[in-house]
Design brief:
Blueprint: H1 11-17, H2 28-31, E1 35-40, E2 43-48, H3 63-79, E3 87-97, E4 105-114, E5 118-127, E6 132-143
Antiparallel strand pairs: 1-2, 2-4, 3-6, 4-5, 5-6
Length: 145
């Protein structure tokens, strides 16, 4: 785990981001079961419990669910360093699938570089035994108020 490489958040920022998937709105990531486990400055960790409806006919978790982990885990990492009213959106997402996933997954994501209008991120998805399932990078366009 990489959490120890990133400083903790101040209480206000932590409170803002620690419940971003359960804030009352029904977001796609929460619909497939993604849960936030930890958020720090420029870092976050999520879990996707095994849910049968997230599988494809071969019995493994659908690649789209894994890609969603990668695209979702970096959202609080990005937000941890942004003003509350900043907006950002994915402009590029690259995923490399390394093995099939037949159980729960843990995703970790972190900021590689923050620019004024673009943020670069990296994420890893591992299975319950800590084996790497997928890696990804995502680039986000940022619009400040």
């Amino acid at each position: 785990m990489r959490a120890e490489d990133f400083p903790p958040l101040d209480a206000e920022t932590h409170a803002r981001w620690s419940n971003f998937l359960g804030s009352g709105a029904e977001y796609f990531a929460s619909r497939i079961g993604i849960e936030l486990e930890e958020v720090r400055q420029d870092y976050a960790r999520v879990r996707l419990p095994w849910i049968a409806s997230n599988t494809q006919p071969a019995g493994v978790i659908h690649g789209g669910a894994i890609a969603t982990i990668i695209d979702t885990v970096v959202v609080p990492a990005i937000g941890s360093g942004m003003p509350e009213d900043a907006l950002w959106s994915t402009i590029e997402l690259n995923v490399q699938f390394l093995r099939g996933l037949t159980g729960s997954a843990v995703g970790e994501g972190w900021i590689v570089r923050r620019g004024r209008s673009v943020i670069f991120t990296r994420a890893e998805v591992k299975d319950e035994d800590g084996r790497l399932v997928a890696v990804g990078t995502a680039t986000y366009a940022v619009r400040m108020p």
